[in-house]
Amino acid sequence: MTDANLLEKIGLIKTETQTDEESEKIIQQKAISRYKDDQQLKPFQAELIRLQKYLEDNQQRMIIVFEGRDAAGKGGTIRRVTRYMNEKHYRVVALGKPSEDQRTQWYFQKYVSQFPRGGEIVLFDRSWYNRAMVERVFGFCTELEYENFMRGVVGFERDLVRQGTILLKLYFSVTKEEQARRFERRATDPLRQWKLSEVDLQAQERWDDFTNVKYEMLKQTHTIDTAWSVIRSNDKHLARLNAIKVILNSVPYPRLDTSLNYKLDPNIVVSGARELEKMEAQRTEKGHFIS
Predict the structure, then answer these.
(1) Is 267 exposed, middle or buried (0-12, 13-18, 19+ CB in 10 A)?
(2) Are strands 165-173 and 61-68 parallel, antiparallel or unpaired?
(3) CB-CB contact of 229 with 66 (8 Å)
(4) Is 71 left (phi over 0), alpha (psi -120 to 50) or beta?
(5) Whole-angstrom Cα distance, residue 23 to residue 219?
(6) In whole angstroms, what is the distance from residue 72 CA to residue 214 CA?
(7) Is 239 within 8 Å of 75 (Cβ atoms)?
């Protein structure tokens, strides 16, 4: 394999002014950076195993909702969260289009059927909030269905929490420019092309529509009992690290390593309330939302 082929394979482009030596150095630096990132995550991934053991011992249920724009890094974060976990005590749920039977059921029914038993974590790669986001933007639900969902979801989640389920809601936020870059990589990389859907192809065109429904979703469903944590995910590694910290900080398990820094980066993790304040300030100043 030539150097040019290798550069193309790992997603780097060699410019006409770069020498082979410079290109090789870039490759090495990228490999070293990935290794360091993985090493930084490992002690926190070990904590996740300890957290799992705590939930198992106490027969406690946990649900983690991963929401956000397409290409915001939800799937990659889920893989890092679960990489070393005990497979017997967690499930990743990514539901497809509803079946004909599911279309006639109570909307939450297909999600409730996937909820955790005692001692188990269920990670939803997109959740019931599909109705508030994708279905709303693309008209996959009626106005009445959307309104009924928004009226009922907070009570639904409060019941979960009141009856002992730990509910964590993470919204991954990426900029329009970074989303476009990631889509371009998906389109040109044969190993990533499967990730590119028809909905993805329209995501940039419908950017403002998604921003508007994001605002409405946060405004109506961010509560003290069922709060949203917004994860700035332009930097994938920092997003993954801080998302893991959010998860660890949500459960009162005995720390495996008390010397670790569990503090969240305020530039990466923002409360739903703070995100709403920022968006409303943007609208007041600019006349429209920006993010």
Answers:
(1) exposed
(2) parallel
(3) no
(4) left
(5) 48
(6) 14
(7) no
Report the alpha-carbon distance of residue 279 to residue 258 in Å, rounded: 36
As averages over each run of 10 residues, the pLDDT of the chain (291 residues) reads: 44 57 76 91 98 98 97 97 97 94 96 98 98 96 98 98 98 96 87 78 91 97 97 98 98 97 98 97 87 68
Q: In what order do the strands lie in the sheet with 228-232?
A: 90-93, 121-125, 61-68, 165-173, 228-232, 269-271
CB 69 within 8 A of CB 174: yes
Pairing mode of beta strands 121-125, 61-68: parallel
**Quick one: which of 66, 70, 290, 67 has its CA closest to 180?**
70
Model pTM?
0.89
What pLDDT is attached to residue 17?
Answer: 62
Q: Cα(271)–Cα(232) distance, rounded to whole angstroms? A: 11
Q: Rounded to an integer, what distance in angstroms lies between the CA atom of residue 64 and that of residue 52? A: 13
Q: Tell me the C-alpha distance between 16 and 144, whole Å.
A: 57
Residues in the chain: 291
Q: Taking Cα atoms as reference points, which of 278, 231, 202, 206 lies closest to residue 66?
A: 231
Residue matched to tokens 């300890």: 50
Q: Please compute Rg for the chain using Cα positions.
A: 20
Q: Are 25 and 228 in contact (CB under 8 A)?
A: no
Per-residue confidence (pLDDT) for residue 12, from 0 to 100: 46
- How far is residue 143's CA from residue 67's CA, in Å, rounded to a whole number? 21
State the residue for tokens 């304040």.
Answer: 277
What are the structural domains, with CATH classification, of the chain?
18-286 (3.40.50.300)
What does the CA dihedral 193, 195, 197, 199 come to, rounded to 10 degrees? Answer: -140
